[in-house]
Amino acid sequence: xxxxxxxxxxxxxxxxxxxxxxxxxxxxxxxxxxxxxxxxxxxxxxxxxxxxxxxxxxxxxxxxxxxxxxxxxxxxxxxxxxxxxxxxxxxxxxxxxxxxxxxxxxxxxxxxxxxxxxxxxxxxxxxxxxxxxxxxxxxxxxxxxxxxxxxxxxxxxxxxxxxxxxxxxxxxxxxxxxxxxxxxxxxxxxxxxxxxxxxxxxxxxxxxxxxxxxxxxxxxxxxxxxxxxxxxxxxxxxxxxxxxxxxxxxxxxxxxxxxxxxxxxxxxxxxxxxxxxxxxxxxxxxxxxxxxxxxxxx
Length: 298
What we know:
Elements: E1 5-10, H1 29-43, H2 52-58, E2 63-67, H3 76-91, E3 95-99, H4 108-113, H5 129-132, H6 136-139, E4 141-145, E5 150-155, E6 168-169, H7 172-184, E7 190-194, E8 209-210, H8 212-220, E9 225-230, E10 237-240, E11 248-251, E12 262-268, E13 272-280, E14 288-297
Parallel strand pairs: 1-2, 2-3, 5-7, 6-8, 7-9, 9-11
Antiparallel strand pairs: 1-12, 4-5, 10-11, 12-13, 13-14
């Protein structure tokens, strides 16, 4: 029996279905469909991730974090497949925490209707006043206590964007709500903060988080945020920035990518922890190998 918290972090699964509806030409979905037909369909194959259930069970993992982009163009058919994938873990007893990415709010209509939340919960938990204080759908933040001293806080910073944009937005409303929520969590407890977008933008402005600087300043106010967990870049990363006043940064990469698919395994103990990065062992193979291990103290 494992007394530590054992967490799998996966992201950017990109379940996809090609749309033949002429209505796609009234939104940016036609751009996504062209990209899907000529590139994404062959590169991202989330259907091959079903073996993760048995692997995670064998590793004693009990919590799964999915940091966005479960779909490709937010089609209902894509979200249905993504939900089946998530439900597969839930039926096996895993706790699964899911936030949306930019591909999960792909068109203005999808964003306005908050379609993602027709398939995935807006609250991580509803066991306490802190956990029901805010919802992802309406407030952009939510939280769940996962042990006596650890919390998961999720964010929805997705945005209805223009034709070739993949940006997010840390709005003043979300900033206020996140600050209020973090104040309610005891300063002696520790936090894993999840957002789809990186804390430090290192891409073109049209692909990054607007008002990222404001999020950076807010995160610095709360040294009990130990991990900032994200996706979006499709590049695996572990970076301990605590000496600079920031959390440990974790990017799982795109787990469904057929050549460089990856995910993170977190083991958290009372005063220390470790992160292991797993990557595809062989291209187009369902097997995984550990390529890096990093240990931390707190």
